[in-house]
Structure formats: structure tokens, C-alpha cells
Design a protein that fits this description.
Oligomer: homodimer
Strand content of chain A: 15-25%
Largest interface: A-B, 27 and 27 residues
Shape of chain A: elongated
Number of helices of chain A: 5
Structural class of chain A: alpha+beta
Chain lengths: 92, 92
Amino acid sequence: MVRHMPNQQKHLDRVFRALVDPTRRAVLSRLTAGPVAVSELARAFDMALPSFAQHLDVLEQCGLVRSRKAGRVRTYRLMPHPLRPAKRWMAQ
Amino acid sequence: MVRHMPNQQKHLDRVFRALVDPTRRAVLSRLTAGPVAVSELARAFDMALPSFAQHLDVLEQCGLVRSRKAGRVRTYRLMPHPLRPAKRWMAQ
């Protein structure tokens, strides 16, 4: 019987699900160069803002990005740590 | 404007979607050791055979496994090639 480690598996489920969408992958790629204000980030994508915001929420919920508000500007930064188990899985 | 290369992006969509499911990941892990007959493969998973067969179909449709029938025995083997663009993407 194949035994799963439930938490580790759930983490991989969420990370791979986040990576299924090309917009979310493009956001992560964009953030590899450093933190970006949400308005600037959104300008790079030809998409209604509510849809774009949903993608950012998915990424933030699984810990791949973190946002911070300073005054009226919300900035997103990449959090690469949650990708590590997925990279390890791919490398096996 | 972020430009996608549509075919490359669609390939990544399909591979990451295949990897979202823990059963499919476990099948791929099992096949890293070499080809396995479907009956032996199914025994390792506590799952109704039709559901298990659907997972195998998803993996075969995106090229991550290939099956071959010899007499009454269908055998699955891992095809690692489609994982490469996903690994490259993760490594960026």
C-alpha cells in the first residue's frame, strides 16, 4: 500500500494547483526580479482587475507570494520557500 | 505586456495539472523504478479500478506515461521527457 504523508501531500497539491495557471506562473516569474507594486504588476497583464486579484489571492494563500501595504501602495514579493518540496519532488 | 508562448504554456498547464493529484504523483514515483504491469500498479493503491484507470489516462494523455499491451498484460512506463519544461520553469 502506498502511504501518503498527508500534510506534505496537501502542500504539493496546493503548490502544483497554483502553478497550473499561466497567469499565476507569469506573476511568479515577474517577481523573481524583486517586489512589485500591485498596480505595476497588473499593468503587465491583459486581464480585468478582479480576476487578476483572485490569482494573487491563490498565490498568497499557498504562501508563494506575500503582500504588504505601505500607505496606499500594496506590494507583492516572491516567497520561494514553498516551491522547494515541489522542486525536490520533480528532481526524484 | 507579458507574452505567452501558447504551446509551451499549454504544455506546462497540462503537466502541472497532472501533478496536482497525489495518486498521479505516486504512480509516477512508483514508475521511476521501471515499467510495471497495471494489475501490480493498481494493487499498491487503495482505490476503485475505474478511478485508478482515469488517473492513468490523464498521465498518458499528457505523455508522462506510456502503456503497452503484450497478450493480456498492459504495462506502464514512465516517460520523463514532458517533465523537463516544468523542471526548467521551477529552476528559474
